[in-house]
Every structure is written in C-alpha cells, then in structure tokens.
Design a protein that fits this description.
Number of helices: 7
Number of strands: 2
Structural class: mainly alpha
Radius of gyration: 21 Å
C-alpha cells in the first residue's frame, strides 16, 4: 500500500530492506494496527475470528474497547448493522456528500479571485510527513 501511495505522489518506492527496517515503527506491544493491514489481511483476520473463538477472544483481550461494540445476539447484530448503515449513509452517503460539495462550490463561487502562486516552500516536507510509512493505511489505496 505504501508503494501505491508513493507512485501516486511520484515518490521513491520502498524495497524489501526498507520495509523490514520500518517494521519496528509499525509494531506496538507485539501488534500491528488492524487499519494498517491490507484489506486482504483484514479479511483473513475477521474470518479467523469468526471461525476461531479463541482468536476472537485474544483480540478482545488485547483491545478492551472492542467489547463495547460486541453484539451479544443475532437480533442485536442485525440491529447494530442496520444502525451503523443508517449512520454511515447519513454522514457519508451520496446526499450528504452532495450537500458538502455544494457548500464548497458556493464558497468558491463567492470567494475573491486571486493569482495562483507556487506551492508553499515546505510542500515537500509536508508530503514527506504525510507519506511516512506508519501513517499509510492500505484501505485508502485499496482497489479490491
């Protein structure tokens, strides 16, 4: 995923040695943030937890806040899924996106016209910090 981001921004790709050297920055308490796993690995983790209650219990033990979201019955699971779907649709659905985009266009249409200037002198520094390996979350670049 990092190399996909690097390609998009015209940056140098990381080789296997670079990735190996970066691993200690990604591992905390013997774990890697789920969000930093590729979508394929995320699916594997979820499937393993579905099939292996001991694996699911270990993840819950390492991540106590997850217990707050843990449904207890099938009907509860359906209710949680429906509620989350409705919230996501309300916040990020096409209508919500359209409203936000319209507000942006309205602000642009009424903003004074200015001369475009070159990128800020520290633009490369900002990009370098944005593209630090530990800040890249594969799901942002996933195509599967």
């Amino acid at each position: 995923a990092y190399n996909l981001a690097a390609l998009e921004y015209g940056r140098e790709l990381l080789g296997p040695d670079d990735l190996d050297a970066a691993m200690p920055r990604l591992v905390r308490d013997g774990c890697v943030d789920f969000a930093q796993c590729s979508p394929t690995i995320q699916r594997q983790i979820v499937l393993r937890c579905v099939r292996d209650p001991a694996a699911a219990a270990e993840i819950l033990e390492r991540n106590p806040p997850l217990r707050l979201a843990e449904p207890t019955t099938v009907s509860t699971q359906a209710e949680v899924i429906a509620r989350n779907r409705d919230r996501i649709t309300a916040q990020y659905g096409l209508e919500a996106f359209g409203r936000r985009l319209l507000r942006v266009y309205e602000r642009l249409a009424t903003a004074p016209v200015e001369t475009v200037v070159a990128a800020p002198p520290r633009a490369q520094v900002v990009l370098d910090r944005f593209l630090r390996l530990e800040r890249v979350y594969p799901v942002r670049f996933a195509t599967d």
